Amino acid sequence: MPAIHLDHLSFSYSSAVRVFEDASVHLGDGWIGVVGTNGAGKSTLLSLIDGELEPTSGRLTLDPRGAVVMRCPQEVDTPTAAIESFALSTDGVSRMWMGKLDIDPSGLGRWESLSPGERKRWQLGAALAADPHLLLLDEPTNHLDSRGRRLVESALGQFRGVGLVISHDRGLLDRLTTRTLRVRGGALRLWSAPYTVAREEWVAEEAAAAERYASARRSEKALRRRLADERRAADERNARFRRQVRQADPKDHDATSMAAKGRHESGKVAGQRRRTVIRAGLERAAAAADELAPDKLLGSAVTFGYEPSPKRVLLRYEGPLRAGPALLADHVDVAVAREDRIRLVGENGVGKSTLLVALLADLAIPADRVLYLPQELTRAEGVRLLDRLDALDTARRGRVLSIVAALGVDPDTLMASANPSPGEARKLAMSLGLGTGAWILVLDEPTNHLDLPAVERIESALEAYPGAVLMVTHDEAFAAAVTWTIWHLEKGALGVRYGVDES
Predict the structure, then answer these.
(1) What are the backbone dihedrals phi and psi of residue 22, each rounded to the nearest 5 degrees, phi first?
(2) Which CATH superfamily groups domain 313-498?
């Protein structure tokens, strides 16, 4: 049976960047969700498994020896050799996967015009047709519409081998996987449950650990108070004895003075013993508390500064919808009010992103009151975001960086970066908009490149956000939590309905 074995594995990019430390885990047949914060080492783990990287120490072995490993990275900008071979193949297995994924064999010749979702299906089809023992996927549902998602989930469900999938798509993880591998603090831990159940278990564990830590700190604090009280009492006894000595009648007999001195010395010794016992207990309590101290991970609840818009209607578009010369819809007439929570749905290529851009083209409200997050941010845009952050005054930069930290990015590391990662750039873009109190959030696939903890924190914040939201997202759980109106864009028409299920 195919399997992956990690035995006391450590990996470092440099002496200053340690990713894994003495990690051991056995991964057998079936689909396993790989989760953790951005930068925790999820993609590094896939690179170690497929042989792109070598462990610094320890051992990683694959069963069977010479196992076929296929890896599908997030981006599919150009057709790989595997995709080209898949396109030319006429064997039954390749044709079967083309059928299951609704792939047009002639599509390779027009690769540049294929949507990201169509390219993703080509990539996955080529990987499945290779009949691998191990299949490694990084965000396989990015850019897929609901139909493409159903095709992909169905196809992946028929894979027999060891499958590792990195994804922020909770629906996919819960439907496809049976186990969850959590990457955290240089360690790997396998949970025998899909993501939602596994998360409930580790949240409960962490809450119990936090309570044990708080209890240990309370014990430490109580012992510190006792030690301080004992020291104060000893000082008072010493002061009282010195006063007694000064005030003693010269006619007192020596025996009386000696008895008083003896009582004082006896009390002094007893006090020293009590303090010694308390200090020993305090050292044990402090050591226990340090041992129980939770990891100081970034991330907290996100809060938005906000003031209501004086205008009821924030965005409006009326007219034909075009993408270049192509006419997508004869006439569209839509508006977004200041308390609307809208999800825009439709198949890939129907014009969802185009409609967002059209709504933003002629603003009737100040541009700095609109947060627009496009589907992808280029490297150059990431650098420009850093420049914008650096140009802010101290107070505004502090507000933005507080949101950056709440989303799980170390502000100091970000400020020192020359080029933020896609996930960091996305969090920074959102933080820059929210740091000035946007009236409306226009979000095109906002969860792309974000780790699950960040997605969940943003979701929680948007549930409480009082402004308007207009978003395109294929993350069903995210959409269900923060929107209640659907704009359904189809070829030539836009319909409005209530509810959150895209079907």
Answers:
(1) 55, 50
(2) P-loop containing nucleotide triphosphate hydrolases (3.40.50.300)
